[in-house]
């Protein structure tokens, strides 16, 4: 078991375990299993962190969080479908493309992408970036955006630049997955009241479904910003 000294995470987190994927003088990538202060120690979260060492201080550059097993399975399915672009294989027709479909930076060009879930406040999607400005590239990015002041803003960003990087991350994550809680009951809805109108019932069901998707995918860090 590791401790927080090994991983430069926030002081508000209690590190339960972790694994360094790689570390150099300037960069440190790791999987961390953690809970929040005063939270249930049997209900942890997983995150892949990337830190950069600048003048002796490790600064967080990226964080991809996994809240539940079900959320992870949905993310993994989309990422692995998108990985087909590295093999010059056709990606399913259900994927869409262009920056008009996804709120990415104007500097990037989206080749294809797929929404994992979207609510009135949150949007999670995997996209393939095929250029950054004049520079051609192939890069998969998993985004989480939050709607603030009528604008979708990036809250998390997880890039996969090579299939081998994804394989390394999978290997690092796998031992910790059985310590996550299940979110399989989150999308259940209560029976509607007999006096509830069909319109109200449909709105309530939609709200419950959105809340269930947020609980499945959003960590406490993100949920608390609502």
Structure write-up:
With 226 residues, the protein is of the alpha+beta class. It has four helices and eight strands; from the N terminus they run E-E-E-E-H-E-E-E-E-H-H-H. The chain has helices at residues 69-82, 163-173, 198-217, 220-223, and strands at 13-23, 27-36, 45-54, 57-66, 108-118, 122-132, 135-148, 151-160. The strands form two sheets. It has a four-stranded antiparallel sheet with strand order 1-2-3-4. A four-stranded antiparallel sheet has the order 5-6-7-8. Residues 185-192 have low confidence and may be disordered.
How are the SSEs placed, and which strands pair?
Blueprint: E1 13-23, E2 27-36, E3 45-54, E4 57-66, H1 69-82, E5 108-118, E6 122-132, E7 135-148, E8 151-160, H2 163-173, H3 198-217, H4 220-223
Antiparallel strand pairs: 1-2, 2-3, 3-4, 5-6, 6-7, 7-8
Mean pLDDT: 85
Q: Note the run of SSEs as H and E.
A: EEEEHEEEEHHH
CATH architecture level-2 label of the domain at 69-164: Roll
CATH top level of the domain at 69-164 is Alpha Beta
The coarse overall form would be globular
Low-confidence parts lasting 5 or more residues at pLDDT below 50? 185-192
Query: How many extended strands?
Result: 8
Walk across the major sheet and give the strand order: 1-2-3-4
List descriptors.
four-stranded antiparallel β-sheet; Nuclear Transport Factor 2, Chain: A; 226 residues; 8 strands; alpha+beta
Task: Summarize it.
With 226 residues, this protein is of the alpha+beta class.
């Amino acid at each position: 078991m590791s401790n927080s000294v090994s991983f430069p995470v926030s002081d508000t987190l209690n590190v339960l375990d972790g694994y360094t994927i790689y570390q150099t003088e300037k960069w440190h990538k790791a999987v961390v299993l953690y809970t929040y202060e005063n939270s249930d120690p049997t209900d942890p979260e997983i995150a892949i962190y990337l830190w950069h060492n600048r003048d002796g201080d490790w600064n967080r550059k990226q964080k991809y969080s996994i809240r539940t097993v079900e959320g992870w399975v949905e993310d993994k399915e989309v990422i692995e479908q998108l990985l087909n672009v590295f093999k010059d294989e056709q990606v399913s027709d259900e994927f869409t493309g262009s920056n008009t479909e996804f709120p990415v930076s104007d500097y990037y060009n989206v080749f294809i992408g797929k929404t994992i879930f979207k609510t009135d406040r949150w949007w999670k999607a995997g996209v393939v970036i095929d250029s950054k400005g004049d520079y051609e590239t192939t890069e998969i990015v998993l985004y989480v955006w939050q709607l603030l002041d009528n604008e979708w803003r990036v809250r998390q960003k997880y890039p996969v630049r090579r299939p081998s990087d994804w394989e390394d991350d999978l290997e690092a994550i796998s031992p910790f997955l059985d310590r996550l809680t299940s979110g399989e009951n989150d999308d259940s809805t209560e029976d509607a009241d007999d006096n509830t109108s069909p319109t109200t019932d449909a709105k309530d069901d939609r709200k419950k479904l959105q809340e269930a998707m947020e609980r499945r995918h959003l960590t406490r860090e993100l949920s608390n910003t609502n």
